[in-house]
Amino acid sequence: MSTTYRARGGETFDSISRIVYGSPFGASAIRRANPGVIDPLREGATVTVPTVPGLNPQNSTSNDPDEVGILVGGKRFRAWQSVTVARSTDSIDTITLAAPQTPGAREHFRPFSFQEITVTVGGDPLFSGTVVDIDPALSNDGALLSLTAYSTPGVLEDCTPSAAAFPLQFKDLDLYQIAEQLCEPFGIQVKRDTAPQQVGAQFNAPISVGDAFGGEGVALDPGKSILSFLMELAQQRDIVLTNTERGELLLSKPATVGIPVAKLSSGTPPLLSVTPSFNPRKWFSHLTSIGPATMEGDGSAYTAKNKHADGVIRPYVSLASDATDGTARQSAETKLGHMIEDAAAYSISVSTWRSPSGDLWKAGDTLSLEAPDAMVYNPYNFIIRSVEFLRASDSGAATAELVLNIPRTAEGLPWDL
Question: What global pTM score does this model have?
Answer without folding.
Answer: 0.78
